[in-house]
Each structure stands twice: as structure tokens, then as C-alpha cells.
Amino acid sequence: MRVDVALEWFLNPDHLPFLAGIEEGWFAAEGLEVELIVPDGHYDGLAEAEAGRVAFACNEPLHMLDAHRPGLRALGCFFETEGGVMLTPQGEVRLFSGQPIRIASPVAGGVTDAIAREILRRHAAARGTLAEAAAIAIEEAGFEHLANLKRGFDGAWLCFHNFEVVGAKAEGLPHVFVSTAAVGLPNFSALELFAGRAFAAREPGAAEAMQRVLTRAVGALQADPERARAIWLARSGEEDTPLLRAILADTLPRFVAPVAADAGRWRRLFETFSAMGFAAIGAAEYDALYG
Fold first, then answer.
1. Phi, psi torsion values for 177, nearest 5 degrees
2. Distance (Å, rounded) from C-alpha 247 to C-alpha 242?
3. Residue 80 has what pLDDT?
4. Would you say residue 280 has pLDDT above 90?
5. Is there a single domain that holds both residue 135 and residue 272?
6. Among 157, 183, 209, where does a domain finish?
7. Residue 286 CB partners (closer than 8 Å, separation 6+)
8. End residue of a domain, out of 137, 161, 183
9. Are residues 74 and 139 in the same domain?
10. Same domain for 132 and 62?
11. Which residues form the domain of 101?
12. Are 93 and 170 within one domain?
């Protein structure tokens, strides 16, 4: 059976469990021919799975909350890193002094902007200063965060430790990484696997097989980092560089297994963001994602 898996962005090492399942023949042994789909937009994969045009999608757990998506079923988390806002040192000075700042983001508008401003507000408050939301401009500028900082942005939002922090350190780029955890907010920089609800009901064995293969792949990748690197190089076509090795070394321990539906994993995120007015669903809708 061919099954399409819509990614959240471009192919990157966060998706290695899928690549390992393909490369090692584990999906094929389960009767699945897996095709990875790179979406045009960040939310497109979720919409395609909800509409039944693809079988599976992966995305950050935040997007279980920021809109009501009744056509999805959450199958489990397979990757979690630290995420937040990366500031330039000059940008942090501007934030603390109440000056306007420009933050680059892959997506702009709605809840994601509000969360970025809340992170920066809390970061400034910890220094005893007030950061006005109106002074924080968030602009859609793609996902090349470090390049955006070099181009003059004061900061970048939706940065991940295993990419941007590792990359900034490798380049010697001065930066201040403000994670959600550092300001007392629950983390959501992770990847949850979703199935279209209609597909999961029609083909429950395929959903279970996907969970089994990803769980097996996580264990294998973490046990053999050299094999993980070889799979990535073969599937991505990238060059083997010191930066790539540093990214992989930071990424591999962040894979999560077993991959299994767990409503408790993101409940604090849901409850916190609900209390702050950031969630567009109620408790019943949250629980239904796992039902």
C-alpha cells in the first residue's frame, strides 16, 4: 500500500526515522510504500491529511491547538528539541531599552506571533524592563534564520536548538537563544505524527505499522550514529561537513520512542495556552485528537 507522509517543512535530519524506515526496508516489510511530501506551506500537510488527500502528516504539537482540526488523529511524538527566539546581542539591547525590533519568522500572524511576543515580554520582564507588543514586529521571512540575522533582523522566531543554536555556535555568530522553557512556557518544538481520521479508521493496521517502524528506526539510529549519518547523506545528497556532523550529534538523542499516542504529553501545553487565550479548541476537542 502506498502511503504519503506530508512533512511540516523541507526535508531535514528531524525526519531521519522515516528515511531509515525506507532505506532499511522496514516499511516495505510492513506492506507500506512510503512517499515523503514536502509541502508548499507549513500548514498544508495537516490540511491534506484532514481532507484525506494524504495518509499521514507531521507537525509541531502547537498546531493541534491553534485551530480546530477534527479530521486529524494524533499518533505520537517522534522528536522533541528546544525552541524559541534567537536574538542578536544588539537586538536584545533594543528589546530591553524598549526600542522597536524586527523578528523574522517562517510564518507570521495569529497565535504564533502572540507566543513570540509573550516569550520576549517575559525575557524582558526578567530583566525588569517592559517590552511592548507593538514594538515587536514579526515578519514572514522564510526559515533561513541565521541568514536573516545577518541581513539585519534583530531576531528570529521558531528557532530550534539542533539547527540554529548548533549552526550559530559553529559559525561563531553572536546570539542569545531564548527558549520557551527559559521563560516558563511549555515546550512545543517537537514533531507529532498525525493520520487523517478517515484513513486511520479505514486502515488501522497502517497507522500501527507506521508507529512500529518509527519506534524501531529511532532505536536503530540512536544505537548507530554512523549508520544514521550514512542514511542522511544517501537520502539528502548533502555533503559530509563538520556542521552536518554537529547537527546530527545534537539531533539523534532528541528522537522519541516508543512512538505512541499519548494525550498526556501535551496536556500542560494545552492547559497553559488555553488559560492564556492561545488555544482555539476545548478539552473535548483536544481529547478527541487521541480518541
1. -100, 120
2. 9
3. 98
4. yes
5. no
6. 183
7. 64, 65, 263, 267, 270
8. 183
9. no
10. no
11. 83-183
12. yes
Backbone angles phi, psi at 65, to 5 degrees: -110, -30
Per-residue model confidence as pLDDT tens digits over 15-50? 999 999 999 999 999 999 999 999 876 668 899 999
Q: What is the pLDDT of residues 150-192, one digit of tens each?
A: 999 999 999 999 999 999 999 999 999 999 999 999 999 999 9
Cell (9 digits) for 126: 526578567
Phi, psi (degrees; rounded to nearest 5) at 3: -130, 130
Q: Is 128 exposed, middle or buried (0-12, 13-18, 19+ CB in 10 A)?
A: exposed
Asked whether 63 and 270 are in contact (CB, 8 A), the reply is: no
Q: Looking at this protein, which amino acid is placed at residue 150? A: K
Q: How far apart are CA 118 and CA 246, in angstroms?
A: 30
Distance CA 129, CA 43 (A): 35
pTM, 2 dp: 0.94
Give the amino acid at 197: R
